[in-house]
Amino acid sequence: MGIQHKQIRPYTPRHNGKVERSYRKDGERFYAGRKFYSLENHNKQ
After folding, report:
1. Distance between alpha carbon 19 and the CA centroid of its chain, in Å?
2. What is the pTM of this model?
3. The pLDDT of residue 34
4. pLDDT given at position 37
5. Which residue has the higher pLDDT, 1 or 4?
6. Within 10 A of 16 (CB to CB), how many other CB atoms are there?
7. What pLDDT digit, counting tens, does each position of 6-37 carry?
8. ∠ CA(1), CA(20), CA(24), 5° rounding?
9. The pLDDT of residue 39
10. Cβ proximity of 13 and 20 under 8 Å
């Protein structure tokens, strides 16, 4: 796959932006298909 682990300096969000954007989009896709009205309701799904 050609994936390399790369450490960045702490508190440098511009270096970590692509990863954080990916996490945000993944979360949006995950929650887009789920509707829940309480934590208990979410856990039952």
Report:
1. 8
2. 0.39
3. 72
4. 76
5. 4
6. 14
7. 787 877 777 777 777 888 888 788 777 777 77
8. 105
9. 80
10. yes
* C-alpha to C-alpha distance for 8 and 34, rounded to whole angstroms: 34
Rounded to an integer, what distance in angstroms lies between the CA atom of residue 8 and that of residue 38?
A: 37
Nearest to 22 by CA among 43, 3, 36: 3
Q: How far apart are CA 15 and CA 7, in angstroms?
A: 10
Q: Two tokens at 21?
A: 């954007």
Identity of residue 29:
R
Place of tokens 């829940």: 36
CA distances from 12 to 5, 23, 36, 38 (A): 17, 17, 35, 35
